[in-house]
From TrEMBL:
Post-translational modification 4-aspartylphosphate, affected residues: D61
Residue intervals of the Response regulatory domain: 11-124
Name of this protein: Response regulator
Residue ranges of coiled coil: none
Keyword field: Phosphoprotein
Amino acid sequence: MEPPAAERETVVLVVEDDPMIRMAAMMLIEGLGYYTLEATNADEAITLLEDHPEITIVFTDVQMEGSMDGIALTHWAAGRWPPLRFIIVSGGMTPELHEIPAGAIFLSKPYADATVGRLIAQFA
């Protein structure tokens, strides 16, 4: 379903391999008034990024199955689509600042809903 352009200009791609966490993140972001797309790994995310130029924010977990983890995905996407903004989350590790793309934000799981809302609004 395509978002009405006048109503939802910010499209957030949620990349998370755990279906329950992915669903919760999508519900949170949609509840804030943003449109979401979902991917279970970096390979699916890349396909969506190529097919949906309206994506402006990537909300990704670090650890996931596939050809690359969330940090590698953000570096790859930042190199290809510099205007993209990134929110990187993990419950298992905390990357060093130099490990994530410039301007990306890292949040530890569990994250506060209000923090996610503030960051997306800041990026939108």
